[in-house]
Sequence to fold (673 residues):
Amino acid sequence: MVSYLARTLVQLAITLVGIVTVVFFLMRAIPGDPALYMLGDFATEASVEALRARLGLDLPVYQQYLLFMQRALTGDLGQSVVTGQPALREILSALPWSLSLAVTGLMIAVALGVPLGILSAIRQGTWVDVTIMLVALIGISFPVFWVGLVAILLLSHQAGLFPALGAATGGGFFTQIHHLMLPALVLGLSVAAYIARLTRSAMLEVLGQDYIRVARAMGVRENRIFFRLALRNAFIPILAVIGVTFAWALGNAILVEVVFSRPGLGSTVLKAILARDYQLVQAGVLVLATGIVLVNLTLDILYGVIDPRMRTGS
Amino acid sequence: MTVEAHGTNGAETLLQISGLTKVFGGKGWLPGARRPSVHAVDNVNLNIKRGETLGIVGETGSGKSTLGRLVLRLLDPTKGRIAFEGLDITGISGGRMRQLRSDMQMVFQDPYGSLDPRMKVGAIVAEPMHVHGTEHSSIASRTADILHRVGLAPAMADRYPHEFSGGQRQRIGIARAIALDPKLLILDEPVSALDVSVQAQILNLLRDIQRQSGVAYMFIAHELAVVRHISDRIAVMYLGRIVELAHRDRLYAAPRHPYTASLLSAVPIPDLKAERQRKRIALHGEIGSATALPSGCRFHPRCFKARLVAEKGGVATSTLPSGLALPARCIDTDPTLVESASGDHVACHFPLEPDDTAT
Fold:
C-alpha cells in the first residue's frame, strides 16, 4: 500500500509539471503580442518594450519557460492585467462557487444515478429497465444549458420555487443554498443520466460472472448477491466513472454558471478571455487542471483501498 | 466411505432426471413477436448413484452445461422432473431449495471468473459455511482443514485470488465446493482451462476427494479423453439429447453410437505406431443448429454409419436435397434411447456392432 501511494504521488508530480508545460506553450502559441494587447492600439513603442521587459517576454523562450516553471511551483502565476490582483488569488476566490456547484451537482447525480442504474440492472429487460434507460438517454441527449433554461422557465418563473439568477453572494448561508439548488439540480440530472447508464452496464457485467452463479448455486440470497457481491465489484468501474464525470461536471458547471449568472471559475475565465487577460486565463486553466488531477489522485488511492488487485501493482 | 463401500451400496440412486427439457427463447420482447426457440436440453433421462461419477460429453452447443445448471436450479426447466434423494426439486420453494443447496455444489470451468476478486481465499472457502449456518467458532479451523485437503497451505487463506495460478485457483474453487460435504458435485469442464500437466493433478485431486467422501460427480467435458479416467459411466450428448449412455469400459472399447465413435477417433493415442495406423472418422460438417433441428435423427446429416448403411443397400432410402441418399428411417424417425442387455443405452437406428468400429 505504501509503495502504491508513493508511485501514485510520483505520477502526480510528473503530471503537474506536464500541465504547467502544456499551459505555458499553449499560451505562447496564441498569435499576437500579449504586451501589445494589454496596452491597446495607442501604445508607444517604448511602453510596449517596457512592458515586455517587465513580463519577461524579451527573454528567449526556454528562459521564459524556466522562469514560469519556477514561479508556478512557488504559487506565483502573475497578476491579472485588468485588476492588478495576483491571478491565483482571483481564481481561488472564484473557486468555491464552482466547487460547491460541481460537488452538490455530483452528489445529486450519484444519489440518483447509482440506485437507478442498480435497479435497472436488477430488473434487466423489464419495463422498469426500459423506462429508466429511456429517460437517461433523453437526459444525456439534452444539452445542460437548455435544461437550465427550461428549469428556470418552469421552476422559477412559473412555479416560483427557486430564484432564477445569481448566487446571493452577499446573502446568508440558507439564501445561498436556496440559490444553489436549481443550478445543482440541473447539473446533477445531466450527470445522473450518464452515471445511471454506466452503473447498469457495470452491474450487468459483474452479474454475468461465474462467481455470481457459484453464489446462487451455493444458496446465497439474492439481496446479498446484488448488494454485497455484485455492487462491491461493480463499484470499481462506477468509481472511475464518477471521477471522470467530476471533470465533466466542472466543465458543465461553467455552462450552468453562465446560464444562471453565477460567479465562479467559469464566468471568471470567460470574462478573462474576453478581456484578453492572459495571466488570468493561464491561472484558471492551471487551477482547473490541477483540480482534476487531484480528484483522479484521490480516486487512484481509493481504488487501492477497495480493489486488492491494484495494490500489488500487477 | 471407501471405494469398496461405494461399490457395494452405491446402487442407491442419488439424482434422478426424467423427461428434462429446457427451451430458450420463443417469446419475443414485444407481444406477438416470436424469437426462434432453442431446445438446449430435450427430454433427457438419467440417474446418478451415490458416489458415482457420471461423465457428460458433447460438443459446444450440445446442452451439457445447461443440463448441469438445471440440476442446480440455476435455470428452471421447461418440462420434466429432477429428483434429488427422491425429492422432486423442480417445483419446490426458494427457501427449501436453499437448504438443499448444501448437498449439491458446482465447480466452473473458468478459474478466473469463478472467484470473487474482492474476497480473500479464506472468505471464499468459508462463504458456503456462513450461508448454511455452520457454527462460527468452527469455520476457521474447517477452512484450514479444507484448504489442506485440496493441497493448499492454510496460510494462503489470507491472500486474494489474483495471487494464484490457474491450477491453484481451481483448487480454491474445489475447496469452496466441498466445504459443506456435498453429496453431488457438478463439475462443469473443471480442467478445460488448465495446462495438461495441471489437468492431471486436478483430476487426481477430484478422485482422492471422492474416495474420501463418497461424493457423486456429474463431470461435464467436451472431449472423451478427460472423462475417461474419472468416470464410471459416460453419457454422450448431441443437440440436447443423450445419444449414448454406457459403462466407461464398454463405451471406450465398443462405442455403439456413430457420434461416440467419431468423438473417440478424435482422441489421440499416445503410441506413434498405433496412431499412424488407425483410421480417423471425420465428421461431416459442423454441429447442427439447435434452432433448426434436422428431421428424424438429429445426427443424420453428419453420420458416417447412415451413409454406409445406405451404400450397402437392403434398407429403404431417401435422398436429401444435397443428393445424398440415407436410410429413410434416419431422416424420418427420431430414434429413442433404448436399453441393451448390458444396461447401456443408445439412440440409433443402426448402432455400431463390434466389428464396425474399424471403419
Observations:
- Confidence is low (pLDDT under 50) at residues 1-10 of chain B.
- Chain B is about 30% helix and 20% strand.
- Residues 196-213 of chain B form the longest helix (18 residues).
- The two ends of chain B are 43 Å apart (CA to CA).
